[in-house]
Write a structure and sequence with these properties.
By secondary structure, the protein is of the alpha/beta class. It contains 18 helices and 13 strands.
């Protein structure tokens, strides 16, 4: 097979995804509670229905399928032109088998230039919308057990990130202890409201202390939010949606994410445009980071290590600068002293960037020791390691910095030994696919 690119160091993908299969509910949720759990949260991309908090919400597969078509060599403009499931779409694209099958993923990783990967959920990032603490606890354990088994295909290359049921601090602490004992290196928390509570509030402090005690990395992982903010906004969205565009994870009004403001406004104006992914991720991340920097929250937990994920990274210098400026300007009204945001972030935090995020390469000195490359495979905006290498070379990022951004920083964060499997790009490769 012809090759056109090579690498001589191991690449670590700090944020890649699985797409949860039906077996999580059918095999990993205990049989005695399975029927009820499925009414509290059940969604996978073999279905046109979403079950949430006892309600049933239409979930067109044409939209949710975006989670499974992220092959870096498929042109995004072309992917967006064709409706998933149609004959033309199936002939040209398809659903990536690797999102459920670890052996298919390993083959895909070889083609993508990825040696090792940290795996995050897709639909379970919406766990924050589940109202029942009991259901959230059962679901978190089921997902964590499934993804641990998924990684058994090659534990030197595949690393699972846990989810936690933040609806209950006590249950989250217990589950964090359990997954830490199983060898998980990270646990994901979405920076949004969980049953009306934000994760930085004091009642969550025991959980962050347990992160410190176990050494597990706090992975602040964001997600888009499309749900109506109020019943009035819900009515407005319903009037313009008609037969339905987008993917709503509940048909009840709920306030839980800053990304909802953009989604509600745009959906109400033009239902065929989904703006939630354009800025929704970033809004959640910027809100969390500004909060923890301007309140001194991170210094409450001096051994806590945190990563900001799925939110791009170009905005980081702006948040650091604005946080410092206004801490200085309002120092006269503040009681406790808050450390310089630059100092705190570069001491305690890391941030993920996308492979095609060229401003990061232009400002590489801002990210040299904290930047983490992510592919977002198999979601529809995925990129591969080869593109990142090409763009870094184009922007004259030093070779030593490339090594850090593409693997060394992530392995240092997670405490993982390097492993190099891939040395050259395979030009001719077609990923295995799931049936529609």
């Amino acid at each position: 097979m012809a090759t056109t690119a090579r690498k001589d160091f191991p690449v670590f993908d700090c944020d890649s995804h699985v797409v949860e299969p039906p077996s999580i509910w059918d095999e990993y949720v205990p049989s005695k509670s399975r029927a009820w759990i499925k009414t509290q949260f059940c969604f996978h991309t073999d279905s046109d229905l979403l079950y949430i908090n006892g309600r049933v919400v239409p979930a067109a597969r044409e939209r949710s399928n975006a989670a499974e078509v992220g092959w870096a060599r498929w042109d995004k403009k072309e992917v967006g032109k064709l409706t998933p499931g149609t004959a033309a779409w199936q002939e040209k694209f398809g659903r990536l088998l690797g999102c459920r099958d670890p052996h298919a993923r390993l083959s895909d990783m070889d083609a993508l230039g990825t040696d090792q990967v940290m795996l995050f959920p897709t639909w379970f990032v919406r766990l924050a919308l589940v109202k029942s603490p009991e259901a959230a606890t059962v679901l978190a354990r089921a997902y964590n057990d499934w993804v641990l088994d998924y990684c058994a295909a090659d534990r030197r290359r595949l690393f699972p990130c846990a989810v936690l049921p933040l609806q209950s601090v006590e249950a989250s602490v217990a589950e964090l202890k359990r997954v830490a004992a199983l060898g998980f290196k990270a646990a994901a928390v979405r920076p949004c409201f969980w049953n009306g509570r934000y994760p930085t509030l004091p009642e969550f402090d025991p959980l962050w202390r347990e992160f410190e005690a176990t050494g597990v990395v706090l992975a602040m992982h964001t997600f888009p939010s499309r749900e109506a903010l109020t019943p009035e906004w819900g009515e407005r969205i319903a009037r313009t949606r008609g037969s339905g565009h987008g993917l709503l994870f509940t048909d009840e009004a709920v306030v839980y994410s800053p990304g909802q403001f953009l989604s509600n406004i745009v959906f109400s104006m033009e239902p065929s445009i989904d703006a939630s992914e354009a800025l929704g991720f970033i809004f959640e991340a910027m809100t969390w980071l500004t909060t923890v920097l301007m309140t001194g929250w991170l210094d409450k937990f001096p051994r806590l290590r945190a990563a900001v994920l799925e939110s791009n990274a170009t905005w980081l210098p702006l948040v650091l600068s604005r946080s410092r400026n206004f801490l200085d300007l309002y120092a006269f009204q503040r009681g406790p002293k808050v450390r310089d945001p630059y100092e705190v972030f570069y001491e305690r935090c890391f941030i993920a960037f996308e492979g095609d995020e060229e401003p990061v390469y232009r400002m590489w000195d801002q990210y040299e020791n904290v930047g983490l490359w992510s592919s977002d495979y198999p979601h529809h905006d995925a990129e591969d390691g080869w593109e990142a290498l090409e763009l870094m070379d184009r922007h004259k990022v030093p070779a030593a910095v490339q090594r850090k951004l593409l693997g060394e920083n992530a392995r240092r964060l997670y405490g993982i030994e390097p492993l190099m499997v891939v040395t050259e790009r395979v030009e001719e490769y077609e990923p295995a696919k799931l049936p529609w």
